[in-house]
């Protein structure tokens, strides 16, 4: 039997998929959500705080992807 596969969007530009015991995050690095609050970087993706992984609320994801402004 194939492992259960669950996917959910997390914050901005992050797709999280849990399949069995493997968590995969997909981020489109061409996205630009503007400047950070400090103005030093441009936001590509953010979980916007700690978010529950798909299918397992005890596992949390906290992630920021950015480039220099």
TrEMBL record:
<protein>
    <submittedName>
        <fullName>Uncharacterized protein</fullName>
    </submittedName>
</protein>
């Amino acid at each position: 039997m194939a492992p259960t596969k669950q996917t959910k969007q997390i914050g901005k530009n992050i797709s999280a998929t849990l399949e069995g015991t493997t968590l995969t995050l997909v981020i489109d690095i061409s996205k630009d959500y503007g400047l950070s609050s400090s103005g030093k970087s441009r936001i590509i993706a953010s979980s916007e705080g700690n978010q529950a992984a798909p299918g397992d609320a005890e596992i949390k994801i906290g992630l920021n992807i950015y480039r220099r402004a």
